[in-house]
Write a structure and sequence with these properties.
Elements lengths: L5 H23 L16 H34 L15 H6 L12
Protein name: TraR/DksA family transcriptional regulator
GO molecular function, one term: zinc ion binding
Keywords: Metal-binding, Zinc, Zinc-finger
Length: about 110
């Protein structure tokens, strides 16, 4: 973590967290009053809206997982543990942290 500026990392993580929260809020907003959602024998606006809501729900879940990773990275930064793999403790390569600042593991332990 020698060449990593903690202030810049904190700013990047905070910005990403704000973006994710805004997108999750947008995707989980309840349908407008009077909107009909349903699955039936015929494809119509209600079916299309229901399918879209299912897709949005799945996207929101994925974004929430990423938000959790970002929040955890921010906590590691505050604790002085940022930039080290949570599995083996070895430094996470700078290129990986640049690409994904919330990375918790080295490449070997990712996945």
């Amino acid at each position: 973590m020698d060449n990593i500026d903690p202030a810049l990392v904190a700013e990047a993580l905070d910005t990403k967290a704000d973006e994710l929260r805004a997108r999750i809020e947008e995707l989980t907003r309840p349908p407008e009053a009077g909107a009909t959602i349903g699955f039936g024998k015929r494809i119509g606006d209600g079916t299309i809206q229901a399918v879209q809501q299912l897709a949005d729900s799945s996207t929101a879940e994925s974004l929430q997982r990423t938000l959790n990773e970002v929040v955890d990275a921010r906590a590691r930064l505050e604790a002085g543990e940022y930039g080290r793999c949570v599995v083996c403790g070895e430094p996470i390569p700078a290129a990986r942290l640049e690409f994904r600042p919330w990375a918790a593991t080295c490449v070997q332990h990712a996945g």
